[in-house]
Amino acid sequence: MATPSELLAASLEVMKKVQREGIVRSSEIGRTHRERLIRSGFLREITRGWLLVTNPTLPEGMSTPWYASYWAFVRRYLSERFDDEYCFSPEASVKLLVGSTIVPGQLIVITRKKVAQNLAMPFNTSLLIYQDEKRFPESRTNLNGLWTMDLPSALCRLQPATFKNDPTDTELALRIVRDASQLLRILLEGGNTAIAGRLAGAYKFLGEEEMASRIVKGMEAAGYRIRLSNPFERDAPALTGGTRVISPYVSRVEALWKSMREDVLAVFPKAPGMPKDPEQFIRKVEELYVNDAYNSLSIEGYEVTAGLIERVRGGQWNPEDEQDRQQRDALAAKGYSLAFKAVEDSIRKILAGSNPGEVVRVDHHKWYSQMFSPSVQAGILKPSDLAGYRSGQVYIKGSKHVPLPKEAVLDCMETLFGLLKEEREAGVRAVLGHFVFVFIHPYMDGNGRMGRFLMNAMLASGGYPWTVIRLARRELYMSALEEASVRGRIKPLAEFIKEELEASR
After folding, report:
1. Is the N or C terminus of the chain more exposed, i.e. has fewer CB atoms within 10 Å?
2. H-type alpha helices, 352-422
3. Where are the domains of the chain?
4. Residue 347: helix, strand or coil by DSSP?
5. pLDDT at 108 over 50
6. What's the rounded Cα separation, in Å, for the pair 490 and 431?
């Protein structure tokens, strides 16, 4: 008679064969296997007939597996139900096309098929699907298996409120369009004078006089009268006039920095200035050293492996293995100590007059390799894991922000270091340097620790003391990061770091 472990292993074998990107249809797996895997925490329901592969060691209510698999589910659900006869709404299309990193609360989908549905999904997310054959766009784009409107079509259909509610995404979208003719063709076909006036006004606000003029003259040549109106409510655009967006991810980093800078300056205290005695400053840093290597802030979507199945089959699988946990903690503590010393060396260079952005650009990989070298030597990580930036996708526990794709990491990190080198204010370097680093999430693990090291190196460049982010305030810290990443509000994070700074004096 098979043991419970053998039965669970058999169910995992079945699930491994049918899962696609962490998604399983109920009809693909027998009831006995399905119920066993749900009881064991390997499967959770998304909606009727659809299941999510999860990690049973994660706490109940953890949102990360869902956010990690969100687009995989949307892609498969819409494809299997509508084939290619669907398209995202203009607003959703713009967000996807400009590389938005946020899992939407509600995703609006239009289709040619007769349907009206609001599909409830985990963690207050939903799919609103309805038929709109008359407005179904002729030009669409398939992006990673998802059908969106092409960018000109989406921009010509945007509601005016979008320019106010999502100004950064909308600005990036407008700057991606290479030629006004892409928009004019749509505007002229529909005789859309109000939309033409709004787009021309938006381009004029962005400093794109040529784009604005071409839209106006193109419409007037066809006999239409155009009245310009600026749909943005910002005082100034996030990027300078004439900026063409080649990489929406790089431009997003630049736009975040520029749009958030003044809010940081309004909150953060004035820098004390470079210390007169650099070695005394370093001694104070050493006195504040705390062996507090935090657990990683990033967690990947769970994937069933052959190794896991074999451990389960042999009854060796134990998610609460105390010995394994203690070994990992000891190695993390040792790595943190080595990395801390490496950061001290970097701070010495900064205090000696080197540009702080350039110092961190050169040294940050050393911090990372020191942090994880004990795990490599113990055989837990491969030596290649110390090579550099991540080669896969990562996710942040509990966050709706999905870090940038691996292809964008190198360019965005170069952009970050350029911004750090050019920034005059140490407080801005510290707050925005930390935020943008974890926004990019350049490594597979250790991003939170690395971000705090960067923050303290930048604080030192202004003579601020080493600042410890206290574990007791972790929820406030994570909430402030989420506000900045998802809602674009940097003040909570600036205020939080200011409070931790004052507590560390």
Report:
1. N
2. 356-377, 406-422
3. 4-62, 87-178, 248-303+335-504
4. helix
5. yes
6. 9
Q: What is the pLDDT of residues 290-344, one digit of tens each?
A: 533 333 322 223 234 445 445 545 555 554 454 544 455 556 667 777 898 899 9
Q: Which of the following CATH numbers is that of domain 248-303+335-504: 1.10.3290.10, 3.30.70.1520, 3.40.50.300, 3.30.70.100? A: 1.10.3290.10
Going from the C-alpha of 358 to that of each of 114, 249, 438, the distances in angstroms are 58, 22, 19
Q: Which 8-state DSSP code applies to residue 297?
A: S
Nearest to 138 by CA among 157, 119, 161: 157
- Please compute the mean of the pLDDT values over residues 96-106 and round it to a whole number: 93
CA dihedral 499, 501, 502, 503 (to 10 degrees): 90
Q: Which residues contact 56 (CB under 8 A, 6 or more apart)?
A: 40, 41, 42, 319
User: What is the pLDDT at residue 306?
Assistant: 46
Instruction: Read off the pLDDT of residues 428-485 as tens digits, 9 standing for 90 and up.
Output: 999 999 999 999 999 988 898 899 999 999 999 999 999 888 877 888 998 999 999 9
Residues 6 or more apart whose Cβ sits within 8 Å of residue 371: 293, 335, 336, 338, 339, 446, 449, 450
Q: Which residues pair with 148 in a beta bridge?
A: 141
Whether the Cβ atoms of residue 151 and residue 176 lie closer than 8 Å to each other:
yes
Within 378-445, where are the H helices?
406-422, 426-440
* β partners of residue 147: 142
Closest CA to 457 of 357, 328, 376: 357
Q: Which amino acid is at 233?
A: E
Tokens (6 digits) for 45:
């329901």
Q: Between the CA of residue 409 and those of 253, 376, 413, 416, what are the distances in Å?
A: 11, 23, 6, 10
**Positive/negative CA dihedral, 161, 163, 167, 170:** positive
